[in-house]
DNA sequence: AACACGATCTACT
DNA sequence: GTAGATCGTGTTG
């Protein structure tokens, strides 16, 4: 990785989720796997903010599944969905306030061969263009839930590239809270999970 | 113990 | 555009 790359510290995540989410666009999600590092430039995220947000997994209180969202910021919240997919989130805000940013899409940067192995037949721009595909290609599972993202296995890097043009929209795949424009996308990316509506 | 459903994706019409 | 895959979790009985 480049010398100017900087791993995001816990203080980055210990802020309001609606500030953290758009700032994650253009940063690089890295998974240092046992084989080779895989990474992608984040181009689409969604914010899930506390018990007042009806679409947040923590809206109805703490359970075994969502407990990590109630913990300190800068940890991974990964859940299993639809019987076959995983979704990767980063916990934000102070301990006790349940919030997270769902990483929905990224552009592949490092470890292309491993990601192609994990997702056979996918075009490059489709390897990470959705939360389920992103986890599958990058090798992220519920085994990583609770992982400290200031450590060396999974983390986010600022490589000081140009700041993306950001567009917002309604969050995908939810039934309530659709009035909130808490989906943030890089307007110029060809790797979004869906066009911005 | 049984059930309904989900922050998705693919294949097929 | 829409149906089907597939199973852990939370809720209900």
Mean pLDDT: 97
Unreliable spans are none
> How many distinct beta strands?
9
Count of individual domains: 1
Name given to the CATH architecture: Roll
Principal-axis shape: globular
Q: What percentage of the residues does DSSP assign to strands (E)?
A: 25-35%
- Stated plainly, the CATH topology is called 3-methyladenine DNA Glycosylase, Chain A
What is the CATH class name?
Alpha Beta
SSE arrangement, N to C: EHHEEEEEHHEEE
* Biggest sheet character: 9 strands, antiparallel
In CATH terms, the superfamily is Methylpurine-DNA glycosylase (MPG)
The share of residues in helices is: 10-25%
Question: What would you report as the Rg, rounded to the nearest angstrom?
Answer: 15 Å
Count, helices: 4
Structural class of the secondary elements? alpha+beta
Kindly report how far apart the N and C termini lie: 35 Å
